[in-house]
Write a structure and sequence with these properties.
The protein has helices at residues 3-16, 20-50, 57-87, 94-126, 129-135, 138-155, 158-162, 183-222, 228-264, 271-286, 288-295, 297-314, and strands at 168-170, 175-177, 316-320, 327-331. By secondary structure, it is mainly alpha-helical.
Length: 337
């Protein structure tokens, strides 16, 4: 065996030799993150589905991001990575491994480019408001979102797959991905899939916050109030900026570790670093709804209403009416509806 195969075998032995306590701790924490992922993103999609007034153009991009995050949990993290973490092995066949690697790349590219579109949307709404209606109608926004997904599916994993390479299972990461020694794909993928959209996003927010600063300066000098529409736009931009910032805080360590591994053409760090890397990848898909709820009043209101409605339904029981034999709904507090 070559050095890479020796290292993979050693990591598999370390993976299988974990103590029962460590297996329970890692699996329990990962399940907790997945619960946040499933619950929060499902709630976000339900809010969009059931409330017509929430279907604004910025929220169309939020819906796309929530969908990619939810699919990350449904298609890869939940059914594939979690069983591997629990059983200390890859319990599926090679086809499932190839599927996971392809889906991971596709959904990550979709998320990164959706965040970029969200930043561009706020850029035109705040920095270039006269051009906003020209570029951002609901129809054009849908075309942008569909184009992003088409690009992610066709151009994300396809160059790697068509080159004849195969995904491999990394016991330390407990998921399948392309080999670290494939430096050509890393050199091609990181700038194209992360570098370009991240630079565009940073530029947009630099211009947005410059515009906000100028608005504030003009307000203090002239005393002319900023319109309520602009104030709301700034609040939306702030929420999206926090999402972008949180996403990048999760991804910068991931990219750094992967870049170092590619340079050395091996896994250069201890197992704990790769476990943290996988947790960060999953967390980046799990906590966006928390950010919406904390920073966006509309989302917070609809989240609370949705949860109250669910709790009210769960807290109601059906009891027979003794005199007429009919059923009535009795709330847990004892009141009769």
């Amino acid at each position: 065996m070559n050095s890479t195969q020796n290292q993979m075998a050693e990591m598999l032995r370390e993976f299988k030799s974990r103590s029962q306590a460590k297996v329970v701790l890692e699996s329990g924490l990962y399940m907790l993150v997945l619960l946040f992922l499933f619950f929060g993103n499902s709630l976000t999609l339900l809010v969009m589905l059931l409330n017509r007034q929430m279907r604004t153009i910025p929220n169309m991009f939020v819906t796309s991001l929530a969908l990619s995050d939810l699919l990350t949990g449904i298609l890869t993290a939940g059914p594939l990575s979690l069983p591997a973490l629990v059983t200390s092995q890859w319990p599926f066949n090679n086809t499932a491994c190839q599927f996971q690697g392809i889906i991971v790349i596709t959904l990550n590219v979709a998320s990164i480019y959706t965040l970029c579109l969200m930043a561009v949307n706020r850029y035109y709404r705040i920095v270039k408001p006269s051009r906003y209606q020209r570029y951002f109608t609901k129809k054009k926004a849908m075309i942008m979102i569909l184009s992003t997904w088409f690009y992610s599916i066709c151009c994300g994993p396809l160059p790697f797959v068509l080159s004849g390479h195969k995904m491999v299972f990394y016991p330390s990461k407990f998921f399948c991905f392309y080999p670290v020694e494939n430096s050509a794909f890393t050199a091609f993928g990181i700038p194209l899939y992360m570098g370009i959209p991240t630079c565009v996003t940073l530029y947009c927010y630099f211009r947005i916050f410059t515009t906000v600063r100028n608005h504030n300066r003009n307000f203090h000098l002239s005393g002319n109030p900023i319109s309520s529409v602009n104030v709301q736009d700034f609040k939306v931009a702030r929420t999206i900026f926090v999402i972008v910032l949180f996403y990048n805080l999760c991804w910068i360590p991931v990219v750094f570790v992967h870049f170092v591994d590619t340079i050395y053409e091996k896994l250069a760090f201890p197992r704990q670093v790769y476990v943290a890397k996988t947790f960060l990848l999953t967390i980046s898909s799990a906590f966006n709804p928390v950010i919406y709820g904390v920073l966006n009043k509309s989302f917070r209101k609809h989240y609370v209403n949705m949860l109250r409605c669910t709790c009210c339904r769960a807290g109601a029981v059906v009891a027979p009416l003794p005199l007429r034999g009919r059923a009535t709904v009795v709330a847990m507090s004892g009141t009769i509806a």
